[in-house]
Amino acid sequence: MNEMVSHTYIEVAVALPVYNLFTYGVPENFLAFIATGKRVLLPFGQRVVTGYILGPSKKVAEKEIKCILDVLDERPLFPPSMIPFFKWIADYYKHPIGDVIKNALPGGLTLYDFASIAISEKSRQALCHDSVTPVEKKILEHLGSGPCRLQDLSKQLKQSIPAALIQSLQRRGRITVTRRLSGGKTKSITQRNVALTKPDLLTDGLSKARQKIIEILRTEGETPVKTLKSLVPSAPTLIRSLENDGYVTICHKRVYRDPFGEPISPEAGPVLTGEQQTVISTVSQYLHKGFATFLLEGVTGSGKTEVYLQVAADAINKGHSVLVLVPEIALITQMERHFRARFGECVAVLHSGLSAGERYDQWSRIVHKKANITIGARSAIFAPFENIGIIIVDEEHDASYKQESSLRYNARDLAVVRAKLNDCVALLGSATPSLQSYYNVQRKKFIKLNLKKRIEKRPLPEINVVDLRQNRDARGIRRFITSELHQAMKETLARGEQVLLFLNRRGFASFPICASCGQAIRCKHCDISLTLHKKANAYRCHYCGFSRSSSSRCTICGSSNIKQLGVGTEKVESAIAGLFPEADVARMDRDTTTRKGSILALLKGLKNRTIDILVGTQMVAKGHDFPYITLVGIICADLSLSFPDFRAGERTFQLLAQVAGRAGRGDVPGRVILQTFNPEHFSILAAKQQDVNAFYGQEINFRKALNYPPISRMIQLKISGKDKNKTEAHARSLGDLCYGLKTNNSSSYQGLEIMGPIEASLPRIAQHYRWQLLLKSLNTKVLHDFIGRLLAENMASFTSRNVKVVIDVDPYFMM
Ligand code: ADP
Ligand code: ZN
Ligand code: ZN
Questions:
Q1: pLDDT by residue (tens digit) across 394-412?
Q2: Residue list, CB under 5 A from ion ligand 3
Q3: If pLDDT is split at 50, 70 and 90, which confidence band does 1 have?
Q4: Cβ contacts of residue 467 below 8 Å, gap of 6+?
Q5: pTM of the full predicted structure?
Q6: What are the pLDDT digits (tens) for 60-84?
Q7: Average pLDDT of 245-268?
Q8: Contact 184, 50 (CB under 8 A)
Q9: Taking a C-beta distance cutoff of 8 angstroms, is the pair 717, 806 a contact?
Q10: Integer Cα distance of 315 and 224 in angstroms
Q11: Which helix (H) or strand (E) holds 547?
Q12: 300 Cβ inside 6 Å of ligand 1
């Protein structure tokens, strides 16, 4: 079982931002415990850190090779077959391999050491009469009240403390520095279970309570002590004596924290439509025959989920496992219900809404083969399966597959990569595919599948475009609730049906402005307008989270006369409640769904029709299936069009077509009122026609003309720092390095374009000034070769102490 027992040298990735792999020795007493995929504790420089075993090392014995200090896991956290995947990611996204693995694993597993400093005995005695500088005295006095973490010292003293000073104090014996371990808090939990020793025990002469316990165990079988206690309060003491007397045995069982809500009753699938059958049999022909990627373009309400369920069943029946990616937590619930109803307990879920412990448990269920289906958000692409049959990516166009921090990957792209490495099938589905996938079909990289009709031949909703320019003179909220929309809402509610109102901006007023001096109320860290959140009595910054009381005055002139311009979901909600006092109005956006279970409650309200009108941001646009929504109102279609981003048109089209697709999914046909200031814009016209091909036909020409992705590939260098001038200077010198590298190797990098450095469209976020540099090429290899070389040749100066440079490969958020 353990392929590594005899290896004295192992290859490890350390959970630190370093690009290399390292060789460590294994002391004899650990030999039996090492295995690929386990964590080890190891010395690294002056520190002790977590590492991941990637296999035996081919290095020959050298004297200076260090040894591991401990093996942290009883069983591996990931199978060896995932290592090529990790390596691919590290290479493609130019990210340190150890950090790739750390990002992939459920959080809370990494042990780090930190330096703790304390005052020495010598200092304690000599404090008042010795030659120390005032700063040193301050440090020693501070430590007099107890040891502290080195990294916290500067903060606590409100003064920067150079490392040299600490070293000097340590050398002079004034302080002691010790290293301690922290982190790694997530552990498995166990539960005490009780079972009868024999089924046919005689219970005569036992007390009533004891008899009752035995009775329960006889009918229920092995039972947790906790359950017994709820039935017989004295059970915890009684079972001990029952155990002594030989009636029962007590054992400890590993339990998995259950993230699921209520039980789900099993369901059989419906009779498939002809289109569904064709799609399913096409995919099934490819299953277990190697790598293939399908793009399933299915109009909203065409029954894509059923296709997923059927091909998943096929893969499971052939002994493979299934990975299903869904863009948002709200949609996981829906997908999970379908899969659990069909497949029962073998479903695991992975997403950021779970606690660290829950995630760890779900992860363990996969590793220990208790689950062979995983449903999750983007991070579920790392689910530790060994023999995947199919990877399904629902709503593949969705922007939330792109991670925008730390390891900046795109889970949709990784799904295809992992399928290729695992020789299995990837199935990407959407009503509005990404232009990139659409292009991959054109280039014969993906195989196209279609579901052109809605289930039961339901018609697609009729879309009426309302020109908001004609409504300019209306006052207050009437500017945004046009008479057409108002009328349609009245009719829908009168029929007892539901209304969905969509606006891609949360909060109450997104553009508060001082009526006295005319200045916008801005975030003090971001140079961006704050948004009023009335319920929270606060102005909030949507970029850095900065918050100010809603009663604050203008920071420029001190006036308290602030005009609340701009509209957000909160304003729409309160206006609607005023217009329709009888209706039950609810709101779904990031503000109303922070609490655990709140999304589920809203979805339940829609399902049980206790909500008549739901107002929401893009959260409501995605994938939900509610049969009684017959009217969708798009309050203002233009918000996403005006973004300075080459994908603005694509995103707008997708968003509008998706929201429209929420209408008329039941027996009653649906209707959409689309309000816009740009009724002639081609993204809006295409959304009105619900014509995906018309849109892509035009959009691809525009991308070709400017050499934008998917025609080309890009890498963005995101440069940021707190000091305005230093950030700009660093951006410029990085730019010079790029141009230099290109000029000196003009034959290799001919087709490579360097754009910038320029100040970012959002020039300051969270006190950081932002610059960017864009690299673009029609040839992926050239692009990656360039950035690899740039990085290798300038490793030391790439990121400086004051300015951070992040490499964003295939960037999505360009501002
Ligand atoms: P999509 O994801 O393509 O928008 P869904 O998968 O949500 O569509 O399916 C729409 C509705 O049709 C769901 O309520 C689903 O249960 C139902 N459905 C799917 N396939 C069938 C079928 N073959 N017969 C009847 N109803 C179906
Ligand atoms: Zn003012
Ligand atoms: Zn801010």
A1: 999 999 999 998 899 999 9
A2: 523, 525-526, 541, 543-544, 546
A3: very low
A4: 676, 677, 679
A5: 0.82
A6: 666 678 899 888 888 899 999 999 9
A7: 68
A8: yes
A9: yes
A10: 35
A11: strand 547-549
A12: yes
